[in-house]
Each structure stands twice: as C-alpha cells, then as structure tokens.
C-alpha cells in the first residue's frame, strides 16, 4: 500500500517536473519576462529569509519540501514582481493555452496565491552576502540602470568577504579588557577553545567571592572569566590585580594535552590547570643596592645592641641619633645619585619627618632582612624545542625592576635572567630555547632591547621618541607598535625593515598565523578599525562597533582562524576567516624610498650572506650619510672635550699665534683683587673678533667681568682691560689658586690663540 | 548495473544500491546519525572524531541499499568532500542546530560545495539534517534554513529535517524523502 502511494507521489512529481519544464521553456522564449521579474526581486535581510522559511515550515519535525527552481520563480516571487511576471507571462501562456495560476496550484501542493504571500524571494547575489547587516545595507538597484558603486563600498565588500561574522555579543560583563590579560585557551584539552579574560574589576559572581576578598577593596571582584562561545563557563576570583595572562604546556609527554593558564600578578604567577587553581610560583627576591644594604645592616646591628642594652636595663632601647643620622645621610645620598632604593628606605627618608618617628620605624623594621620583591609587568611564552602548538614551553617574565626571567616548568626554576636598563612593558619572542631565540623587550622609557641567545649574548637597544604600545615576534622579525600611530618592523639584528603609519592610534597588536603560507599581524585601532597586514601590505580591514581594546587570533570554539575582538564597552565580536580565503594585498605596494631595498629578503639568506647584506644595508645612501654625520659629530664632540680638558689641566702657556702678545697680572692682597690684561698685536695683520676670557675656580673666587671682546685689534695696537675678583667668604686664609686667561678668535673655528695661568696672591 | 540487475531491481527482487555522501562540520553529529541507522549493531559508547572518512552500508524499506560515505568534518579533511561528488547520488548535510556561531562556517562550506563544478553539473538532491534538536536554545529548522541561505538553492531538490542523532528521531523521515527523490 505504502509502495503504491509513494510511486503515485513520484509519478506526480515527475509529471509536475515535466509540466514545469514545459512552462520554463515557454518563459525562456520571452527573455524580457524573466529579466524584469528577477530584477524586481528585493534583497532583504536574513530576517526575511527566516520569515519566508517559516511560512514554508509549519511543523519543525516534518521535512520541508523544497520546490525546484522553475516553479519557485512562479509561486513565491515578490508581489510586484509576480504580478508583473504574471501579467506578462499570462499572455504567453494564454497563447499556449495555459492558465499559469491554476496550473501552479494544481501541480504544487505548497502553492500560495500571490495575494496571500508575505515573504519575498532573495536574489542569488544575497547568497554571497557576508552577513545580515551587510545584506540590509544593500539597496535595491534596477538592472537596467546600474547605479555606480562607490569605490570605498566596493573595497569594503571585498574586504568583508574574507571574514564571516560568527558572534556578536553586546554585554559580556568584561569591564576592563586589555590585550595582555586575554587569551584563547583550550582549557579542558578537549578541542573546544575558550576565551579567557582576566578582568581587572569585573563584577563577578558574588557567591564566589570570599569574605577576605570582599573586605579588601583593591582586589574585590578581580576575576578570571572563561567563556565558551557566548556564555560564561567559569569564573575564578583572583587574589591580586592581574597584569599578564598566558597559556602554555609545561610537559612534553603528558597526555591528554591540557595547557596551563598562567596569570601574572605582583611577584606571583598563579597557574590554573583544567579550570582549577593548580600552582603558584613566586619570583625570587632581588638584592638591593650594596650601599643601602650596608646602611640597613649597620642599623640592624645598632638596634640589636640597643635592645640588648635595654634588656640589661642600661639603655633606652633606641638607636643613637648619630648612627641614625649617618644611615639617613647615606640613603639620601644614594637616592640623589639616582639608584633605585627599596620601599622601606623611601619610607625612612621621606615618610618619617622627625627623629622620633625614624627611631620607631628603625626599631620595628631594621631587624628583618632587606629584600626587594619583583613586580611582574608582562609575560610571554617561549617554546622549548618545537614549534608545534602543544609543544613544551617556558615562561618569559618581565618585571618593573627591569629584570627579565626565563622560568622553566615543571619545577618553575629561573634558568636565566637579564637585567635591562628600564622597566619592561611588552615582550616578543622568536625562536626556540634549545636552539636559538631572540627576545624583544619594549621598555617603559620608549626603547626596545633585543636580547639574543647566541654566544655573544649581545643586547641591542633602540631608543624611540615615543612610548610603545606592543611588540610581537613573527617568524623572523619583530613588529613594534608605537603610541604615535606608527608600526615598525625590526630584524633580530635590530635593523629597521620597514615602518608605516596607521590612520588612528593603536590599541593592540596581535600575530595572525593561519597556515604555513600566511604569517601577518592585526593592528587594532581606537576608531574601531582592525587592519590585517602581511609585511607592510594591508590585506584586510574589519570594522568593529567600538574601540577594540583586545584582539586575539587563533582557535575559538571548534574553529581555527578566528579573530576575537573585545571592545572597550565589553562587546565581544568574533569573526572567522573563510577556509579557502586568500589574503592578498588590497593595494599594490608602493615602494618607500626611506625603506631599505631588499630588507624583506633579509632573513631568508644564510648567516654569512645576511651579514654581508647587513653591511650593505648600512651602505645605502641615506643611512650612510646619517651614520657618517652622526659619527662626525661624535668625533668632534670627543675632540673638543679632550681639548678643553687638556687646556684646563695643563699649567704651561699656550701660544698658537706668534703675532699676539698677552701680559696679565693679578694685583691686590685679598679678598678683592684686580686682574689686568694687556693685549698687543705685534704682527702686521689686523685681528678681528678677539675674545678674552678669565676663568677661576668658582668655589674660590668670583670675577666681575669674566670676559670681554676686542672687536678690532690693529697692528701695533695695545689694548688693556681690568676686572675685579673677589675671594669667597668660606675660603680659608693662606690658600690661593690660579686664574686662567684665554684669548681666542671667534670665527669659523673658535681656536684658542693664547692661554695662560696666573697665580693669585695669598689671601 | 546490468540489464538483468535492472530487471531484478524493477521487480523488487534485489535492492538498488545508492551512494550517499554525508557531510557537515565537525561535531555536527554525522557519525552518531549513521550509528543510529545501523541495524543489529551495538551502539558505541563513545564516538571519536572521524579521521578521513568511514563507509557504512544499510538497507531501507524502499528497496534501496544506502552506502553512506561518512566524511570527516574537520577543517583539514573538508577538501576530501569534492572527490566523492562524481560518484554519489545524494548528499546529506548535517548542521549542528545548537551552535549558532558556526552556522556561518556551515554556510560557507555549503556555498563552496554548491559552487563545485561537478555538483553544478549533477542536480543530485540534498538532504539537510538540523541535528541536536534536543538541546535547548538551538535553532529551529527554519532558522537553520535562513542561516545557511537554503532558499537560494533553486537548481536542485532539497529538504531540511529536525533530527536528534542520539535517539534517531527525525532521521527516518529524512531518508524516506531521500528514497522518494532517488526513486523518481
């Protein structure tokens, strides 16, 4: 029975297909009909697609029958379009002896008369529309009058084509998103990657907050949030404000491969494993400055002695004022010399105004050893011996004290440390620990320091005139983003490869590595734009709804190649790169004369060739000129300084000009003296712009007129000048010094003609 | 198929063999659906992600024997799908209705599939399964249809069924439709 029914249905289908084929062949004979009807079909948003499908599916459990294309055009077109097509096609069909509507109703059980239809058919072009918003923005354009498409819009369309909009959540509860505290982590190790955000002051679940956290306002609600897709999967309250969040695999052979999420906070690294707090590692203490340490050691000895005396009932139990003052002076001296001092010393010299409070403080704290706890400022991960995603890795930790640590799991021991000149703000890493690696540290003083693991263990420093926003390490070079809307690329040898400007201030920078062929970076900007670059070529543009604070690229959920953006308002925007998308430059690259030619090929060569090229790079015209000028200035400065020192120190007179005679004497018994200077032009030429300078030790004497000018000195002319000199009041009696007299010619070269030293009579 | 076989098939003595390609994104539930269709086989307790593809054969009440090529849905294996297009007579596309975020990926893969040269020449029917309907908050079949732009497929027959791979609910409806399409 069932077989017969199904065969009847199949026969009907076959028949309907044949009849519809005949109709379509008739319609094809009238090309104006089909073109007009298709042009009138309205593009609309995806909501209309849903509307149209909802009319088709009454019950979700039943299969929805689809009508083939030819009949679809007839029965579910837009009202106006269908009316037009019907009015036109009815003539044709009448001529052929058919009634189109009656026929459609007969052959198609899902046929709906035109006056009862609400849905519209989308044009095929909307199939390629990237997202609903985009489809909504497109307007209906008649085909016979094609409106010119603006170039920007066209570009936008092609750009958007690469990315698919997967998720857009307006409120995620993230209050302070920033780049360093965001990561895409496969938390459970099951292949479903989560977004992990360490929120500085996120309003967390109060049920998770302990009473201790609630009492302490500094760390209240600071939490790690784990998102699975759009929903919050887990939340941990963290004990201190976080500064950096990374994930890595501490072991090489443990299965299943579950990464550890490490959170840097103060001197500690808190590690989470499989969504639970797992381990804590504290950075070792830093030894303070030896002078400061000595001062506190003396104080502790003094405090110990005072306490023992007090125990014997022979003293007050407090340190002597002299010892206290001496230590105070030593620490102040150290502070003035510019050396960093500990918080305790700072409190001692500035927080204690009178001796009593100093004494109390010293008695309280001097007996505990003086140590500095490092403050973590940034972290990154360096793979140990493989570039694979789940390879064993180690932590690279930068601190506010300017010390860089390499921490090796699973014992979490510091295997290497380097001291830099400034606090470290961002870190970028290239290479493997066991082979060769280079670390680029962006410091808070606006410099980058490139540390190499090669034999020389060299450290190269490049100073910028602006603070830096981020550093990332690509395959063979570093990308540095500055706060002045500029992006720089440096090789591991600290050579500038290229630099360019972006239209808006940079907020974040992220490495984008899709497969073996593409390795670029994304730059997020204040105006909500995210630009994707391959080298210095812009390959893609993405617009977010607000200023993007944090941007991460990688696996998200079950998909790879996802761009996860978090805006300043806490909005989450996830885009997925199409699997077969090819990221090509949007515009042909314009060669920049300022950029060294061939620098892009730099790292592909062997080491010897690389060195040769690096020499060549210096040899390019502009670089060479700048370097030459710099060296020349440097040389001149060194020479001038050496000459000045030499002139100051030596007691012998200098006489470069034989035609000029100088006689100078100091008269008086002190404390006031008078210096007489007499110049005689013994030559035949006239001298112009001759200066006479009198110099004496400013701590001993003060000279009223320290110099005078002789504009013209004719041949055989004699000029005499005098000046008063006073001995300082604090100068002891019976001490005398020298007065130096310089005669120099002001011109192209400021050369000293005559110099001499005159002894000053005893005071 | 020889003349004799065709004669026997038309008499209903032997069943006609039909090749079906089962595709969809990873974690959509393709292998689970196929495991539910296998008769006289113990249901595996744990289903691991398919590597490459697997072939399953089962017969239906419609005088047809389905040979299903269960393709892996992982990104790195999706390029394999197109190699089977010339040999199959129908395609089953499984969608994870509970995963709204990946609907755009499914749409992209579907578009890529439909743009394939071989598939454009062959007007074979496509059966869509909106799987995992038991999970709350998932998309309805009409929403799946809208998200994947199924209304734009006008050159071939298709249908969409709401299914639950774990219980097998809705799967037989879909294959009934497919059998009807293939008979015609």
UniProtKB/TrEMBL annotation, chain A:
Q: Which residues form the Bardet-Biedl syndrome 1 N-terminal domain?
A: 163-451
Which Pfam family is one of those matched by this entry?
GAE_BBS1
Query: Region labeled Disordered — which residues?
Result: 29-65, 121-147
What SUPFAM superfamilies does the annotation carry? WD40 repeat-like
GO BP terms: non-motile cilium assembly; protein localization to cilium
Q: Its Gene Ontology molecular function terms? A: patched binding; smoothened binding
Q: Which PANTHER family match?
A: BARDET-BIEDL SYNDROME 1 PROTEIN
User: By what name is this protein known?
Assistant: Uncharacterized protein
Mind telling me which GO cellular component terms the entry cites? axoneme; BBSome; microtubule organizing center
Origin species: Chytriomyces confervae
Where is each Bardet-Biedl syndrome 1 protein GAE domain found? 660-761
Q: Where is the composition biased (Low complexity)?
A: 34-58
Automatic annotation (TrEMBL), chain B:
**Keyword Glycosyltransferase assigned:** no
Pfam family membership, one: Arf
What InterPro entries is this protein classified in?
P-loop_NTPase, Small_GTP-bd, Small_GTPase_ARF, Small_GTPase_ARF/SAR
Annotated residues that bind Mg(2+) are located at 31, 50
Binding-site list for GTP: 24-31, 73, 131-134
Domain of life, per lineage: Eukaryota
Question: Which residue windows are coiled coil?
Answer: none
Which PROSITE patterns does the record match to this protein?
Answer: ARF (PS51417)
Keyword presence, GTP-binding: yes
This entry's Gene Ontology molecular function terms read: GTP binding; GTPase activity; metal ion binding
Keywords tagged on the record: GTP-binding, Magnesium, Metal-binding, Nucleotide-binding
Q: Which family does it belong to?
A: Belongs to the small GTPase superfamily. Arf family.
What is this protein called in UniProt? Answer: ADP-ribosylation factor-like protein 6
Organism of derivation:
Chytriomyces confervae
